[in-house]
Amino acid sequence: MLQNQDPNRLQEKSVKDYFEEIAMTFDSYYKQEAETGGLIGKLAHLVFRKPAMACRYQAAFQLLGKLPDKHVLDVGCGSGIYSLEIVKRGGSAIGLDISSAMIDLANQNAQKLGIKDRCRFVLQDLKDFEPGAQTFHACIAIGFFDYIAPPQQAEVFARLLQLAKQDVIITFPKKWVPATFFRKIFFLKKKLDVYFFTKPEVMKLVGPGIQETTFYDCGSVWTVRFRKSL
Predict the structure, then answer these.
(1) pLDDT of 3-51, one tens digit each?
(2) Paired residues of 121 in beta bridges
(3) Quick check: helix, strand or coil at residue 165?
(4) Under a CB-based contact definition with an 8 Å cutoff, are residues 168 and 141 in contact?
(5) 136-162: buried (b, 16+ CB within 10 Å) or exposed (e) per residue?
(6) Domain residues for 113?
(7) Biggest alpha carbon distance in the chain?
(8) Which CATH number is 224's domain given?
(9) What are the CA-CA distances from residue 25 to residues 21, 33, 35 (Å)?
(10) How far apart are CA 148 and CA 130, in angstroms?
(11) Which one of 79, 178, 209, 211 has the largest count of C-beta atoms within 10 Å of its C-beta?
């Protein structure tokens, strides 16, 4: 029966289940002492995940530039790490995620910081999101394309471009680095497909509507800004 199901829906369910599972420990990945569960997990975090996550965080905000009065769509927002920082830097944000546990956590984090009036978190898939009259100066998708299968990547990218007034910032895990092997083994156990990219594969997404593409090297990850032609 499973073999007759839509593989896209199966992947979406696997991603949702995974992030529901790790929601309560996710924020710790950005902290000094991550809740990684075991020696191997701790070593992988310290050697691969932590440096890449710290770098992509720094890179994303550098590429976003000045944030006062900017409205940003944070796709795959998780616990709201990026959305909340955008607000703290003077902007406003809407975060989308398919994990209800992550959205709950993001709302709790916003409540604790007292900034719920400048950010909103929505339990919804990107393909179903309708912005209405809202305009987004930029869209960010951090740790999002890791889980988008190749047949859907161009469509998802086009949707992000459609929603952004100027910049789309996306992270892409690299294909030929040591961290890839460990991530593949880890997610194989989770029965979750994860996708990795070469630079030419990233550049295949670039079409005539892109004025400039900026790569920021974060070790095992690229943080990339696609700037639209105005």
Answers:
(1) 456 677 777 888 877 777 776 676 655 554 444 444 444 544 444 457 7
(2) 95
(3) strand
(4) yes
(5) bbbbbbbbbbbbbeeeebeebbebbbe
(6) 2-228
(7) 51
(8) 3.40.50.150
(9) 9, 11, 6
(10) 20
(11) 79
